[in-house]
Amino acid sequence: MADYHTYYKGPEGETTQWEDIQIRLGNLAPKEKAWKPEKYAPEEELSKNKEWIDAKTQDELEEGLDEEFQDDRALNEYRLQRIQQIKAAAAKPKFGTVELIRGSEFVQKVTQASEKYLVACLLYREGHIPCRPLLQCLPELASKYPSTKFVQCFAQDAIPNYPDAGLPLLLLYKDGQCVKNLQGLKPYGGDKLTPEHLALVLNTFGPYCIRDGEDEDQATNDQIRSLATRLADKRAEYGGTKDPEDESSDFDD
């Protein structure tokens, strides 16, 4: 009579407990794992909203046909508006630094230049202590807001016999006219001036410190956040306390 034996054979690639022991002892070669298809995960449909449009380049937005947005007329209008914003920003001149000008260049590089773009001109004297806060802040603003032309000029070169008591003098120009002159440090609350605080002050007289594609509210919120971060870093630098050299408020009159 034949001797029948039953052998268990699991799925391909699966090993028994005995085989696992032999593999650990080196008596058997490890089996190749059986191929398994990846688990199906349906792709999430990308929602088209204003944030999605803001992240696109001009070419990407122009490739989108109006038919793609036919179910959302408001979103399509925003897309077209965004394309115009990008084109307008690209057409704006880019400065990015504070230019030192001579008094003889004032009309050309300030008055006439302001007919095309916003201009902020600082009149100062070298070594005059009250001028230092603005001299320190302007380069950062010029770099951050390159659509505005920032210049500086020696006060005596621009206005002979101008008194030091009236320095620093920051002149804001637009459309060929001086729209505001800020004399001394009182308009900024004192000498504890930061670039963000200066930007907030300038923007009360026009969009001097606004990035391309930003509106005034976005710029203000960004500057307030940056100011809060700078002040927090300052406190951390002094161990969570106020600057020991500053006995009064940063913005005292």
From TrEMBL:
What top-level branch of life does the organism fall under? Eukaryota
What InterPro entries would the database entry show?
Phosducin-like_chap/apop_reg, Phosducin_thioredoxin-like_dom, Thioredoxin-like_sf
- Gene Ontology CC, one term: cytoplasm
Domain named Phosducin: which ranges?
Answer: 50-187
Q: Where are the bilayer-spanning segments?
A: none
Q: A Pfam family in this protein? A: Phosducin
Set out the biological process GO terms recorded for this chain's protein: protein folding
The UniProt entry's sequence similarity note says: Belongs to the phosducin family.
Under which name does UniProt file this protein? Phosducin domain-containing protein
Q: Which organism was this protein described from?
A: Polytomella parva
